[in-house]
């Protein structure tokens, strides 16, 4: 009998699309211990270096002492523990929205929220580069789905016209991100919101890579542009710049109450561990503080350094640096793996990103920067990348 999975795995290997996990024997940080080798880490979304921060560790430890580790059940079943409510209050205050709701991950927030927003007679309009969690949530909703080319507002407008004409009584929800996770570029939010208002659509904005990085006190792109009021559903994650784990939705009181009643990933899943909620609250409070703002501004100094350090190249417009994500497009899948391996030999951990995370033939290195990197590390990466690219 042939081994079906072995054959399928072999096919993945043959196309340079096979993935495997690599063991890290240390906390996240600018330096990690990858199978016994110390590497400078340009792979994580821990933008502010909070994943191993003492404030978060202390908050989690204190919550363990008081609440233990497990949440016991869904928050609608066994009661909701104080750390989760305190986190939601802190989130709503920081984001300046009426209310907030936490999920066990950003992924869970997406797959729970989109089906609660749109049913099978409604219309969802998604940017082509939306994160997998948004695509999965959209599919799960059963709504009528249209994808517009990345940041292409002209195409979005024609989708909106089509939706108004063909589905005049449906709810229309535009779904996009403020910073795109594999390209690091930003959405033209102001223009998109003008469209949304003109057509009476709703907007879900996933700020996963913007919070902690962009806007006053890291409140995200909508806050930076003064457009908070115009984003109906603000989504984000506690697992990137906030250093921990979990997802959130911020918005009106009625939206949050609706999600509590309808978001299946919230209703039918055990609450995140209380220490995780407590650590996330400590992270939100840090961001809201002047010290947090200082750390965020330090990240922007590093981003500026990275922009100077990476070889200038018209084919790599992402060096326009609207975020802490620097894609280094290679194209060929195997070439991206080889470049990543070459960097690893030189002491840098920079992952190769391939199909289906990005389109076929647009494989890349995804360099992510944090406030914990120092200037020498950034310069070292730029120099090494220049050298390895030149010798090919
Ligand atoms: C990472 C990410 C998510 C998922 O968040 P997790 O907390 O990691 O599950 C959702 N949306 C975007 C854009 C992301 O980058």
Summarize this structure as a short list of keywords or feature phrases.
seven-stranded mixed beta sheet; alpha/beta; single chain; Aspartate Aminotransferase, domain 1; Aspartate Aminotransferase, domain 2; binds pyridoxal-5'-phosphate; 13 strands
Can you offer a commentary on this structure?
The protein is an alpha/beta fold. The protein folds into 2 domains: 15-44 and 293-390, Aspartate Aminotransferase, domain 1 (Alpha-Beta Complex); 54-287, Type I PLP-dependent aspartate aminotransferase-like (Major domain) (Aspartate Aminotransferase, domain 2, 3-Layer(aba) Sandwich). Helix content is 43%, strand content 16%. The chain has 14 helices and 13 strands. The protein has helices at residues 4-14, 54-67, 82-95, 106-117, 132-141, 153-166, 189-198, 221-224, 253-262, 264-267, 274-288, 290-309, 333-345, 375-390; strands at residues 31-34, 37-41, 99-103, 123-127, 144-148, 172-177, 202-206, 233-237, 247-251, 325-331, 348-349, 352-353, 363-368. The strands form 3 sheets. A 7-stranded mixed sheet has the order 3-9-8-7-6-4-5, with helices on both faces. Helix 5 (132-141) links the parallel strand 4 and strand 5 (144-148). Helix 6 (153-166) runs parallel beside helix 7 (189-198), helix 11 (274-288) crosses helix 12 and helix 12 (290-309) runs parallel beside helix 14. The chain is globular. The mean pLDDT is 95. Bound molecules: pyridoxal-5'-phosphate. Pyridoxal-5'-phosphate binds next to helix 4.
């Amino acid at each position: 009998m042939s081994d079906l999975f072995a054959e399928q795995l072999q096919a993945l290997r043959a196309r340079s699309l096979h993935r495997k996990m690599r063991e890290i024997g240390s906390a996240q940080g600018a330096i990690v211990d990858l199978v016994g080798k110390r590497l400078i880490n340009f792979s994580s979304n821990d933008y502010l270096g909070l994943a191993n921060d003492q404030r978060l560790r202390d908050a989690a430890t204190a919550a363990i002492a008081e609440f233990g580790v497990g949440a016991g059940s869904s928050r609608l079943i066994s009661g909701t523990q104080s750390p989760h409510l305190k986190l939601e209050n802190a989130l709503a205050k920081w984001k300046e929205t009426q209310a907030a709701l936490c999920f066990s991950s950003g992924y869970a927030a997406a797959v729970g929220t989109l089906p609660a927003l749109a049913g099978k007679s409604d219309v969802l309009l998604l940017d082509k580069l939306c994160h997998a969690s948004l695509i999965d949530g959209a599919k799960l909703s059963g709504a009528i789905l249209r994808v517009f080319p990345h940041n292409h507002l002209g195409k979005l407008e024609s989708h909106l016209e089509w939706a108004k004409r063909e589905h005049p009584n449906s709810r229309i929800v535009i779904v996009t991100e403020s910073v795109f996770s594999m390209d690091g570029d930003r959405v033209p939010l102001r223009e998109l919101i003008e469209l949304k208002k003109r057509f009476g659509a709703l907007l879900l904005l996933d700020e996963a890579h913007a919070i902690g990085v962009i806007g006053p006190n890291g409140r995200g792109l909508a806050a930076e542009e003064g457009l908070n009021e115009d984003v109906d559903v603000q989504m984000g994650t506690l697992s990137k710049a906030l250093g921990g784990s979990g997802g959130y939705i911020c918005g009106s009181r009625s939206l949050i109450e609706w999600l509590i009643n309808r978001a299946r990933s919230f209703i039918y899943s055990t609450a995140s561990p209380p220490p995780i909620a407590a650590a996330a609250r400590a992270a939100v409070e840090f961001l809201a503080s002047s010290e947090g703002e200082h750390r965020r501004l330090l990240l922007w100094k590093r981003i500026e350094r990275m922009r100077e350090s990476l070889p200038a190249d018209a084919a790599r417009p992402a060096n326009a640096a609207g975020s802490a994500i620097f894609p280094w497009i290679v194209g060929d899948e195997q070439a991206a793996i080889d470049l990543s391996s070459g960097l690893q030999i030189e002491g840098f951990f920079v992952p190769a990103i391939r199909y289906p995370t990005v389109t076929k033939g647009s494989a890349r290195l995804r360099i992510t920067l944090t406030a914990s990197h120092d200037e020498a590390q950034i310069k070292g990466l730029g120099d090494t990348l220049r050298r390895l690219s030149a010798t090919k």
